[in-house]
Structure formats: structure tokens, C-alpha cells
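Annotated sample (chain length 331).
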Amino acid sequence: MKSHPADRIKIPLGFWEGLHQLGIDAYEIAQKAQLPLSVISESVVSTTQYFSIWQAYSDMMGDIATGMIKLATVFETAKYPPTMLATYHARNYRDALNRMVQYKQLCPPEGLRITEKGEDCLIELEWLHTEKPGPPMLVGITLASLLELGRRGTGQPLRARCVEFSQPMGDVQALEAYFGCRIRMGASCNRLTLHRRDLDRPFDSYNEELLEILTPVLDRSLDEQQRSRSLAEMVKWIMKCSLTGGGPNIEAVAKQLGMSDRTLQRRLTEENTSFKHLLSQARHEQAREYLADPSLDIKEVAFLIGYKDESSFYRAFRLWEGETPSNWRVK
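Output written by the structure step:
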């Protein structure tokens, strides 16, 4: 896999401070992760090192659920990095989550995809720029931090509707007590489902003046990072975030990228691809992912990837896989 500039992970100082509050020595983590002790003072590590640190913490805690809940709740808001501060001081929970999805791109390797549907708000974790999934402890902390954000911002004991993990996560009862809902293991993806009505809850921590300072700085950093990625990669990422209910058009995607649709078409041609081809790829990849989840029926999958009727989805899927979605699913 080719090297990517995003293979530089920033570790917030609050992480080491949180470990200290739990009575864990940072040097022990570094040693268990088989990393030089200097990693504690370094603000940036590689994805492999980052995963090793989280696995070391998990091994020291023993039970994943216990370690996840303890660190998520002990992490001090004052120690949040700028990307998290911008979410904590948002106007309401929806604004906070949308900022989290946007600015998480500055803090790989984990990324988030959010979908509002009916009474639900589904937030799915995905891995950016790496084919290797992160340790279960990191998965758990990431989803817990999203609920923790809502609880701290609103000052209310919010509960999730459902939490799904692809791997075992330890003490299920402890997880259900923390999230306030049922926990599903062995799912096809790692996903937090919230009550959509909670998204309109205002944040007690809303700070307009601070956001006016942080937002332009973070937006510039995001722009600089995106310019270092291939245009096709960015276009497909935007598509995946907006497939539901019809999917994006080239004008909307071009607007998000700050260019005209003609310029976007020209630059994609220079990268030997096209908007139509990338949209088909995005739908194909998302279709395979959603079909792997038995809780979603085929009609829902068609809607989630932008098809208004099942027949159109069936025709497209036959072109991609040579068989119907139903047959592919039972393999």
C-alpha cells in the first residue's frame, strides 16, 4: 500500500493525562507497545504505532469494555484538542456531530459517516487510508466519545438506540449500562445509532466567540490536507457521505470542493476517471457493505446508496457482481 501523508497521527496530550488519572504509567504503555519511550513526548506517530499504543492499553486493562468506559469518562474536556473543542462548543448536538465528521479527517486513521433516517441517526466508523482495522479498544472509544460529547454538551444523560460492534468487546452488561441500550456483537460494521430527536438538543457549552476563532483555522487545515489527496479520492468520499435518497450531482460535489463542475470534470479526466465512474464505484462499495448487514433489507440498501426503486438497484448490482443482491447476500 502506498505511503500517505495521513499516516501521521496526532496523539492529544489529554490521552496521556487520562492514562495517568487511571493510574497507568505512560512509559509502561510505550514499553508494552514495543515503542521507544520518546513516543510519549512526540505529538505525531504512524498508524502502526498508534494502533500498537491502543492495543497496549487494551492489554493492560484486560477487559475492553471496562478500559473503554473508564477512559471515555475520565478524559477532561479542557484537554480536548482543537478539533474536539470545535465540536464541544457547537450550537447543538447535530452541529457537533457534523463538525466531528468533518474535522475527523484531520485526525485519521478513523473516519465517520453519519446518516439521518426516520427516528434514527446512524454513525458508522470507517478506516481512512489504511486497510487494517484498528484495535477493538479504539473502536469502542471512538463510538463512546460521540455519545460522551452529547452528554457533556447538553448536560443530559443521553442514551443510544443501539450500538453494533464487529468484534467482541468484553463485558456486554457494562457496555449496555454505559450506552443505555442493547449491544450487538458480530455485526458487519461498527455503528452507533442515536435518537434523532436528541440532535436538536442545544449545547450548554455553546461558545460562538471560540468557534469564530477555531472554525477558520480548522477549515484551512482541512483544505490543505484535502489538496494533498487525489481529487478522485475526495470526490468518492463526498459521494459516500451523501448517497442516501438520490445521491449527489456533479454541481453539488464541485461546490463542496470550491470549483466549477467543468473544472471538476476536467481534473477527473486528468486522473483518468469520471464523475459517473466514481459514483458507480461509491455505490458498489457501499452496496456490498450494507448487504453484509442482515438487519437491512434490500429496499433499504437501495435507498441508502441513492436508488429510488429496487429495480434500478437490481440492474446496477447485476452489472457489478453478475448476480442479484439476494443471491450475493446468501453466499
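Annotation: Residues 1-6 have pLDDT under 50 and may be disordered.
Annotation: Strands lie at 9-10, 44-45, 110-117, 120-127, 160-164, 182-184, 191-195.
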